[in-house]
Design goal:
The chain is built from 10 helices and 8 strands. With about 425 residues, the protein is an alpha+beta fold. It folds into 2 domains: about 1-65 and about 100-285 and about 295-430, Outer membrane efflux proteins (OEP) (Up-down Bundle), CATH 1.20.1600.10; about 70-95, no CATH class. Strands 2-3-6-7 form a 4-stranded antiparallel β-sheet, with no helix packed on it. Strands 1-4 form a two-stranded parallel ribbon.
Length: about 425
């Protein structure tokens, strides 16, 4: 009877069937996570508000300064504050307006438009970064949940095996060391299962954080959607990154802003005219007993700003703009080099992971399962000991767990690759799925 119970677990389809992932209610897909991130992430909402603020102020950048209106009482006599002097005016109204010349307003408007476009690119880049963070957390939940499922299956196998070992030892067919070894492995697996459950809770909390939800919000079982197994060549990915990556577009806009600032700085030394008009009135002196009449007067003024501190202000603005231009160009070159290096790294990682997954599917896992079956057959006829049987089954469990880890790693790298090129990958004829 004990041997029959052991066979039920080790015959083809026994333990393997126990490893199937149960269908959990409320399953979640990565596409659903992406949609929730776009709608709920607080960081993206804050950046969108910053873009709205930049757009709101864009039109004002090309406007001249506000005019100045002055009201006054002029030339009253002291100390009596009387308006009986010939030059007294009450009231006096003066309106002044500065008009920047040499295209300064046009350059300021162009700079504001570039600043708004850069803010939009920054918002798009933040969207890809948050999207990638959500994918990282999603695949962490996937890995932890699938690992825990495998561990529960292995733990059940070990617990049943422990009972078989005890029964065989009681009938004189087994050894006490077999019972102890099965008990040790079961205890170790329980500890690993506890650790993996904690990792699942941590990953779910991270995902909830990206989604802007309370950390304790339940997260359903992740569904591993098919991923492209064939990727475009490196040169194509580079071209896509240059065209679509918001970070590179933002860098190009910052270079353009630096050039606009440089042109504006060279015009700052030009004096800006100030024009003004003034109106005043006074009462004329009485003549021949006739009532005094009100005399009205007007004035027109024209002035200029004087760049008397040009050596310390306007010329230094040119130096600052030139330095900012060099910085922007250097940062753009660094971004391009970083993107290029990351593309090469991600392609290498994805190819390695895909090859390993294929190797595990075709050779490693089938051979490990065959090894378990062979160990059981040999154990039944006394050719191998109990420890060899346990080791074979534990090795199969490790290989299954490694495969789950590689699936999660492949999904994370695909998401980061899409962030690096700034667009989703096209559909591939060959896909990679969770099914072995």
């Amino acid at each position: 009877m004990p041997a029959l119970l052991l066979a039920a677990w080790l015959l083809p389809g026994g333990a393997e069937a126990q490893q199937a992932t149960p269908a959990a209610p409320g399953a979640v897909r990565l596409t659903e996570v992406y949609a929730a991130v776009r709608a709920q992430n607080p960081r993206l909402q804050a950046i969108a508000a910053a873009v709205d603020a930049a757009r709101a102020m864009q039109g004002a950048a090309a406007l001249p300064p506000d005019p100045t209106l002055q009201l006054g009482l002029m030339n009253f006599s002291l100390p009596g504050f009387r308006f009986d002097m010939p030059t007294s005016m009450a009231p006096s109204v003066q309106l002044m307006q500065m008009l920047p010349i040499a295209g300064k307003l046009g350059r300021s408007g162009e700079l504001a438009r570039q600043r708004t476009a850069a803010a939009e690119s920054q918002a798009a880049e933040a969207g890809w970064e948050v999207r990638s963070r959500a994918a990282m957390a999603f695949y962490m939940v996937f890995e932890a949940e699938r690992q825990a499922a495998l561990m529960r299956s292995t733990l059940g196998w070990l617990q049943d095996l422990q009972q078989v070992a005890k029964a065989m030892y009681a009938t004189g067919e087994g050894q006490q060391s077999d019972v102890l070894r099965a008990g040790v492995e079961a205890a170790r697996m329980e500890a690993e299962l506890t650790r993996m459950s904690a990792m699942r809770a941590v990953a779910a909390a991270r995902l909830n954080g990206v989604l802007g939800r309370p950390a304790g919000t339940p997260v359903g079982a992740p569904v591993y959607d098919a991923l492209p197994a064939e990727l475009p060549p490196l040169d194509t990915l580079r071209q896509w990154a240059l065209r679509h990556r918001p970070m590179l577009e933002q860098g190009r806009l910052e270079v353009a802003q630096a050039e606009t600032r440089a042109r504006l700085a060279h015009r700052e030394i030009w004096p800006d005219p100030v024009i003004g008009v003034e109106y005043g009135q006074r009462r004329a002196a009485m003549t021949d007993g006739m009532p005094a009449e009100t005399e009205r007067m007007g004035s027109v003024m024209l002035g200029f700003s004087l760049p008397v501190f040009a050596g310390s202000r306007q010329l230094r603005m040119r130096d600052e703009a030139a330095a900012m231009g060099r910085m922007a160009r250097a940062e753009l070159a660094g971004m391009q080099a970083e993107v290029d290096a990351r593309l090469s790294e991600l392609l290498a990682n994805l190819e390695r992971t895909r090859s390993l997954l294929e190797l595990y599917r075709r050779e490693v896992l089938p051979q490990a399962r065959a090894n378990v079956a062979a160990a059981f057959a040999s154990y039944r006829v006394g050719r191998v000991d109990f420890m060899t049987l346990v080791d074979a089954q534990m090795a199969l469990g490790r290989y299954e767990q490694e495969r789950i880890t590689m699936l999660a790693e492949y999904g994370r790298d695909i998401s980061e690759l899409e962030m690096t090129i700034g667009r989703e990958l096209p559909a591939s004829p060959a896909t990679l799925t969770e099914e072995p």
